[in-house]
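Technical note accompanying the year-one report. For the benefit of new consortium partners, we illustrate the data format agreed upon in the data management plan: each record pairs a sequence with a structure-token string. No post-processing was applied to the example shown here.
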Amino acid sequence: LLVVGSSLMVYSGFRFADYAHRQGKPVLAINHGVTRADHLLELKIEGECGAILERLLTLAVRQPD
């Protein structure tokens, strides 16, 4: 599960991260600051979501040399 730009402080969002974690699925987040699910995260990237997603997409679709 990839969480982007949410603190997950509202249970309606947090429950997805909690469920994924309980099912043994990786939970990752791109966000500024603390999230309610920090203790569940396998990876957290702190920063501006748009810029980070753009960079990840560029790396993912990079053409081989």
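Partners are asked to follow this layout when depositing records. The radius of gyration is 13 Å.
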